[in-house]
Amino acid sequence: MKQPSGGVSATPDLKHFVAAEAELAHLRQEHGLPQEKHGRLWHLLDRVLLHRQQRQKRLCNKATYLKLCLLGIVGAHRFYEGRWGLGLLYLATCWSGFSVAMTIIDAMVVIPMKGDEQGNVML
């Protein structure tokens, strides 16, 4: 991939964005410009997105995952995938329509995925 004259890739990822934000904050401090104040929610969102980009994907059997989507109201497919935090979120919100809606989206993402010879997909 050809790089622009600045030496930065044409398709920066989240790590590059976070590094650029840190460099901008340093330059603002160095030149006496006021710092931008971001709230806790902004920093939490940054950490969540960075974690999502760096998380390890796991091999899961596609047929088993889709069968567990039928129990999606309690997050069974997320526990099977090894994502305990999301499984607990689905379980905590099972009284609302959130977990059902998210399970439908999860199934729609997995259905078109091509599995390997054992039927496993990377999630």
TrEMBL record:
<feature type="transmembrane region" description="Helical">
    <location>
        <begin position="86"/>
        <end position="111"/>
    </location>
</feature>
<dbReference type="GO" id="GO:0016020">
    <property type="term" value="C:membrane"/>
</dbReference>
<dbReference type="InterPro" id="IPR007829">
    <property type="entry name" value="TM2"/>
</dbReference>
<protein>
    <submittedName>
        <fullName>TM2 domain-containing protein</fullName>
    </submittedName>
</protein>
<dbReference type="Pfam" id="PF05154">
    <property type="entry name" value="TM2"/>
</dbReference>
<keyword id="KW-0472">Membrane</keyword>
<keyword id="KW-0812">Transmembrane</keyword>
<feature type="domain" description="TM2">
    <location>
        <begin position="62"/>
        <end position="107"/>
    </location>
</feature>
<keyword id="KW-1133">Transmembrane helix</keyword>
